[in-house]
Specification:
The chain is mainly beta and 174 residues long. The protein has 2 domains: 2-66, Immunoglobulin-like (Sandwich); 106-171, N-terminal domain of TfIIb (Single Sheet). The chain has strands at 2-5, 14-15, 17-19, 22-24, 32-40, 43-45, 52-54, 60-66, 139-141, 150-159, 162-171. Strands 1, 2, 5, 6, 7 and 8 form a 6-stranded antiparallel beta sheet that branches. The model has no long low-confidence stretch (mean pLDDT 78). Belongs to the 5'-AMP-activated protein kinase beta subunit family. Residues 83-172 form the Association with the SNF1 complex (ASC) domain.
């Protein structure tokens, strides 16, 4: 059994060591969200009992979020002064009439992978996949199923380890 993941852009495989009924590997990862998949006897598989999401191509991958260690006793951390903000960071040029005639920038492709646009899990059609961190706190429009006279907007945000998606359905004729 091997594992391959997004921590190195899917470029290397790590062999897992058998320990009783389990297979294990120790890998030091920086804080972030990583997708991974197992290779069992040459076949790519995901673990259905672990958190999984769809990738950009519709494949199901397991996902793990590595968080930075936060000590319990915050008082033990020495305080520090915030550096001064340079004026150039908030002194923007005034907008001109040319700024209003430009086309808006294209929406990044990963924002199309919202909970409203992701296909359902075959094994559990009522379960939603874990949202990718890049779509959190963005408002998005459903593109696959909305009718001609219905406008569907949604936003997913995170509170601690929970995710909340708010969906607004409205008539385009209203």
């Amino acid at each position: 059994v091997e594992v391959e993941g997004s921590w190195d852009n899917w470029s290397s495989r790590l062999s897992l060591l058998k320990s009783g009924k389990d297979f294990t590997v120790v890998k030091l990862l920086m804080p972030g969200v990583y997708q991974f998949k197992f290779i069992v006897d040459g076949t790519w598989k995901y673990a259905p009992d672990q958190t999984a999401i769809f990738d950009e191509m519709g494949n199901v991958n397991n996902v793990v979020e590595v968080q930075e260690y936060v000590p319990e006793n915050i008082d033990s951390i020495s305080s520090f002064e915030l550096p001064a903000s340079p004026p150039s960071s908030y002194m923007n040029d005034k907008m001109t009439s040319e700024d209003f005639v430009k086309d808006p920038p294209l929406m990044p492709n990963h924002l199309n992978l919202t909970l409203l646009n992701v296909p359902q899990f075959v094994e559990a059609p009522a379960a939603l996949p874990r949202p990718q961190h890049v779509i959190l706190n963005h408002i998005y429009e459903e593109t696959n199923k909305s009718g001609k006279d219905t406008h569907v907007l949604g936003m997913t945000y995170r509170y601690r380890s929970k995710y909340c998606t708010t969906v607004l359905y409205t008539s385009k004729n209203a």
